[in-house]
Amino acid sequence: MTQAEIEELFTYHSPEPHQIPTFVKIREEAKHFALIVSEITPASAEQTLAIRAIHAAVFHANTAVALHGKKH
Q: Which residue, of 20, 28, 42, 52, has the fewest CB within 10 Å?
């Protein structure tokens, strides 16, 4: 990874107005899935891991949008 790529990763990228609906959609859908996982699986370490993985997926999806724009 180049220094420029590292700089880009660790720079704050404020959302552009056209990106905000994408961020909202990602969070809403992920929350819906997390609620389903919570509802239909037993409370356990694995359930917690599944929900945390969904949370991590939101982070990575939002990063993709912030760094590379919205896929059309």
A: 42
Cα separation, 4 vs 64, whole angstroms? 17
Per-residue pLDDT of the chain (72 residues; tens, 9 = 90+): 899 989 998 999 999 999 999 999 999 999 999 999 999 999 999 999 999 999 999 999 999 999 987 665
What is the per-residue DSSP string for 21-58? HHHHHHHHHHHHHHHHHHHHS-SSHHHHHHHHHHHHHH
Q: Which two tokens stand for residue 39?
A: 């509802």
Q: What are phi and psi of 49, to 5 degrees?
A: -60, -40
Residues in CB range of 69: below 8 A, 6 or more apart: 19
Give me the pLDDT at residue 71, please. Answer: 62
